[in-house]
Amino acid sequence: MLEEEYISRRRLPPHLQPGVTREAPFEYELRSATLQDLPYVREIYNHYVRNSSVTFDDSPISHAELRRKFAKITEKNLPFVVAVNPSGQLLGFAYVFPWNQKASYRHSVENFIYLGPASTGKGLGRALLAELIDRARSAGLKEMIAVIADKGADASIALHKEFGFKETGHMGKVGFKFDRWLGSIFMTKSLK
Ligand SMILES: CC(C)(COP(=O)(O)OP(=O)(O)OC[C@H]1O[C@@H](n2cnc3c(N)ncnc32)[C@H](O)[C@@H]1OP(=O)(O)O)[C@@H](O)C(=O)NCCC(=O)NCCS
After folding, report:
1. pTM to 2 decimal places
2. Using CA positions, which residue lies closest to atom 25 of ligand 1?
3. How would you class 75 by CB atoms within 10 Å of its CB: exposed for 0-12, middle for 13-18, buried for 19 or more?
4. Pocket of ligand 1, candidates 126, 150, 177: which has the most ligand atoms within 8 Å of its Cβ, to mutate?
5. The pLDDT value given to residue 3
6. Whose CA is nearest to atom 29 of ligand 1?
7. Helix, strand or coil for residue 47?
8. Given 6, 71, 96, 155, which residue has the most CB atoms within 10 angstroms?
9. What sections of the chain are H helices per DSSP?
10. Are 96 and 137 in contact (CB under 8 A)?
11. What pLDDT score was predicted for residue 101?
12. Is the CB of residue 54 less than 8 Å from the CB of residue 152?
C-alpha cells in the first residue's frame, strides 16, 4: 500500500472530525397564539423597539398593553399566529389588527410580523406570512396593509413584494428615531 493511501484511510469521516459542529435543523410549528405566549411575543417585539427602526415605537410595550391588544384581536376573531420550535420556544409571530376604528374600514387590517433575531433569513417569515394571509382570507377580510419603515426594513419590503403586496404610498420623514428622520411605506394586498 502506498503511503498516501494509508493516510487517507486513517482520516475520520467528516461528522467525527474535531471542530465540526452540526447545526440543528430549523424546525417549527405554526399555531394560534395564546395568552401564555404574550411574554415571549413582548420580548421579541421589544428587541426591535430598542434596537431598530423597523418599528416607530421607542418605548417597550408593556404586558398590559399587549394583553389589551390581544383581547381585541381575539374578540374580533382576527388571526394571531405564532411559530414555535419542537421544545416550545417561541420563534416569531404575525397578527393583524383593525386598520381604523371607523366602521367602514372593518374589512381592512394592518399586519405585523416579527421574528426573533436568530430565526430570521431561514424562510420562517415567508411561512408565517402565508399562514396569516390564509387565515385573514378565511376570516372574510378584504384588504391587508403593511406599514414599513423606509430605512432598515429591506427584508420586510422584499417579503411583502413576494406575496403580491403593492406599494400604495410613501410618506417621507414622518418618523424620528435614533436621531434620524424616517418615512413610512404603505404596501397593500387585496385578499379577494
Ligand atoms: C422581515 C422578516 C419577517 C422576514 O422574515 P425572514 O424569515 O427573515 O425572511 P425569509 O427567510 O422568509 O425570506 C423571504 C424573502 O424575504 C427577502 N429577504 C429576507 N431577508 C432579507 C434581507 N435581509 N434583505 C433583503 N431581503 C430579504 C428575500 O426576498 C427572501 O426570499 P429569498 O430567501 O428567496 O431570497 C424578518 O426578517 C424579521 O422579523 N425582521 C425583523 C422585524 C421586521 O422587520 N418586521 C417587519 C416590520 S414591518
Report:
1. 0.91
2. 155
3. exposed
4. 126
5. 55
6. 158
7. helix
8. 96
9. 3-10, 38-51, 63-75, 124-138, 154-162
10. no
11. 95
12. yes
Q: Is 129 in the pocket of ligand 1 (CB under 6 A)?
A: no
165 C-beta closer than 6 A to ligand 1: no
Q: What is the pLDDT of residue 46?
A: 98
Q: Whose CA is nearest to atom 16 of ligand 1?
A: 159
> What residues contact residue 182 under an 8 Å CB cut-off, 6+ apart?
53, 56, 149, 150, 151, 173, 174, 175, 176
Strand partners of residue 184: 149, 171
Angle at 103 between CA 128 and CA 68, to 5 degrees: 55
Q: Which residues of 92-103 are buried (b: 16+ CB within 10 A; e: fewer)?
A: bbbbbebbeeee
Contact of 49 with 43, CB cutoff 8 Å: no
What's the pLDDT at 5? 54
State the 10-residue block means of pLDDT for the chain, 192 residues long: 55 67 86 98 98 98 98 98 98 98 97 98 98 98 98 98 98 98 98 92
